[in-house]
Design a protein that fits this description.
Luciferase, domain 3, GMP Synthetase, Chain A, domain 3, Rossmann fold, seven-stranded mixed beta sheet, 3 domains, 547 residues, 17 helices, 25 strands, single chain, nine-stranded mixed beta sheet
């Protein structure tokens, strides 16, 4: 006999992105959004923003945008881009964030693959749009994110963003919370980028747990400087998290230079600033030149790639700023873990506490499930040492890629392969030791490029480091270390190797150290190891031949 379930007597209201902004307008209405534009600093409240967003949704509707249509943004971090984050999905369309730093060929591919109908872009990106527009037949409407006086004088039949804003009598529609909301393509580390299509449900759930006390934990007393681009992994969800938390949001615009970042921290009373490690390297250089400090800043969220230990120490010891790291990816919406204290971590002795808190990617956030699978196929123990492939599942994890690209991604139990290699310790904290594609296999043994880089960046005089696999006449692959010296420093090869020695096994040591002025970066600000591997793949072979 089957017993029918006893259902709870609770209301069933759809989780929708528009509801987050409506909440902010009603209950967090005095809080500001500050947007740095080329010729001014624009500021308004969440209440005023919600009114403009409704006017934008109404305007898009008048242009013929319908449910499911892809509305693309090619834009920097400004208030107009923020408005698109709510208007397009709020009306039932899909916001497709485009990365202007991608190759033009990739942009054309992505736009055509997504079949974007509208593209909204910043004026300084007009030359780029002019070049690719003839190759994107699905795009019927081009909107420049500016005022009428700032429109490019090129004779194109482009629309002005401010001109399309209609009246604000638009009523937010209700629809299934599993409706598609945001489309974001991966950075394309292998092959062309693939699209991750988030729903309203997944986006709202992610914002709720990203705002929890064990993650961002924002309050109306906070001001967030969003340096990480909004086109990169949904701006780490902060356009949504700030709305539900009532935190002030500062947007640096196209000119997110180190000087402007420091200026905004002081001018706006920033308490949390975000960025990849290369952003903070530039900030340090600016602080050294100007002899300024970091003002009101309390926390620095550093993600995208591993934070060097020297960066963590400098933030804490010199500027009194708590470095925060996390781990995630576009396919996770994007946050998966966040650093934070537990009584057990807090009770650890000095170096052990430092390592547990600052040298790992943080504790896994609910409701994400994570497992580490060893090469044997067994789950790795939570000992902080045993590494394996990282698999994930949960309500905010991609089930596959847009239009089925990449084929079936999930295993029979619904787990998604991240492509990361990592471990979990007894505190529930994850460490990402490498990407599968960045591991170095030398004589049948795996070497972590991240371990080499971590040891190298702890060496005095080293600003950045990248370890890559290069060909070797005997071992097939060996590690090569590329080093960018810190400003004014001239570290030697022997000094770098000596600093690394003792932190790695002898067979894990790099075979050579090459000093370079800069490392190539991907469109999302990470070190582009594809370029480095192509450039240096025969470095050791040439040296062996010369010998």
């Amino acid at each position: 006999m089957t017993v029918p379930p006893l259902y709870g007597l609770m209301q069933d209201r759809p989780l929708q992105i528009s509801a987050m902004l409506q909440h902010a307008a009603r209950f967090n209405q005095p809080r500001e959004i500050v947007s740095r534009l080329p010729n001014q600093v624009f500021r308004y409240t969440f209440k005023q923003a919600e009114s403009r967003v409704r006017r934008l949704a109404k305007g898009l509707e008048k242009l013929g945008v319908r449910a499911g249509d892809r509305v693309a943004s090619l834009a920097w971090n400004t208030h107009r881009h923020f408005e698109l984050f709510y208007a397009a999905p709020g009306m039932g369309a899909v916001l497709h964030t485009l990365n202007p730093r991608l190759w033009e060929e990739q942009l054309v591919y992505i736009i055509n693959h997504a079949e974007d109908r509208v593209i909204c872009f910043d004026p300084d990106l007009a030359p780029l749009v002019e070049r690719f527009a003839p190759q994107t037949p699905s795009v019927k409407t081009f909107i420049v994110l500016c005022e009428r006086a700032e429109m490019p004088a090129n004779g194109h039949n482009w629309l002005c963003f401010e001109d399309i804003l209609a009246d604000d009598d638009f009523a937010w529609p209700e629809f299934d919370e599993r409706t598609a909301a945001i489309l974001c393509y991966t950075s394309g580390t292998t092959g062309m980028p693939k699209g991750v299509l988030c729903s309203h449900r997944s986006t709202v759930l992610h914002a709720l747990y990203a705002q929890s006390a064990v993650a961002f934990g924002l309050t109306p007393l906070d001001c967030v400087l969003l340096v990480v681009p909004m086109f990169h992994a949904y701006g780490w969800s902060l356009p949504y998290v700030c709305a539900i938390a009532g935190a002030k949001l500062a947007l640096p615009g196209a000119a997110a230079t180190s000087a402007n970042i420091v200026d905004m921290i002081h001018d706006e009373g920033v308490t949390l600033a975000t960025g990849v490690p290369t952003v903070w390297t530039g900030v340090f250089d600016n602080l050294d030149e100007t002899e300024r400090n970091l003002g009101t800043l309390k926390r620095a969220l550093i993600g995208g790639s591993a934070m060097p230990p020297s960066m963590s120490r400098r933030l804490r010891e010199q500027y009194g700023v708590e470095p925060v790291t996390g781990w995630g990816m576009t396919e996770l919406s994007p946050l998966g873990s966040f650093t934070g204290l537990t009584p057990e971590i807090d009770a650890l002795p000095g170096e052990a506490r430092e390592a547990a808190l600052h040298h790992r990617a943080g504790r896994v956030l609910f409701p994400l499930e994570v497992k580490i699978v060893m090469s044997s196929g067994d789950a790795a123990p939570h000992d902080g040492r045993t590494a394996g492939d990282v698999w994930v599942r949960g309500p905010c994890v991609a089930a596959g890629y847009f239009r089925g690209e990449g084929g079936e991604m999930l295993d029979q139990q619904g787990w998604f392969p991240t492509g990361d290699v990592g471990s979990i310790d007894e505190h529930g904290s994850i460490a990402i030791t490498d990407r599968v594609k960045d591991l170095i296999k030398s004589g049948g043994e795996w070497i972590s490029s991240a371990d080499i880089e971590k040891a190298a960046t702890d060496c005095e005089g080293v600003a950045q480091a990248a370890a890559i696999a290069v060909k070797h006449p005997h071992w097939q692959e060996r590690p090569l270390l590329l080093v960018v010296p810190a400003r004014g420093a001239q570290p030697s090869k022997s000094a770098v190797l000596e600093a690394i020695r003792g932190k790695l096994a002898k067979w894990q040591m790099p075979d050579d150290v090459v000093f370079v002025e800069a490392l190539p970066l991907t469109a999302t600000g990470k070190i582009d190891k594809k370029v480095l591997r192509a450039r240096y793949e025969s470095h050791l072979m040439a040296a062996a031949g010369a010998a």
